[in-house]
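Lecture notes, unit on protein representations.

Consider one protein chain, 141 amino acids long.
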Amino acid sequence: MTEVSVFAEILSERPEGITSLFIRGWKKDVDIGVLSHEKGVLQPVSFDIEVHISGSSAPVRDEIDAVVDYDYLRSLVDRLLESRRFNLLETLASEILEGCLAPPEVIASTVSVSKLSVIEGDGEIGCTFSRVKESFAKSSN
């Protein structure tokens, strides 16, 4: 996913560096779509999610409570999909992005969501949303 690596590269130019956590190529069957033939039908959807945390130092301890537990990304997607049916990939991706930015340690995130069986062959359609937290962007100026 080129967009994610470019985003990470830009952020990593900061002297303190960044740490990136990710889920890539996570596939789930999801009831999503605005067209009548999509409603009530599970479609394979792929999720690529990356969050960026300021700093690239080793954890203070080799314990899960000493880092941002990236399992929150998986839990976030599951909670959103259980909460309601989405018509648009863009709405789902945007809500995932909002949740990704919730932990105070996270400074930026990129979310891509793709439908895998809409185009014949190996094609996919989807969208990508990226954002740097406003508070981090202001402190970088």
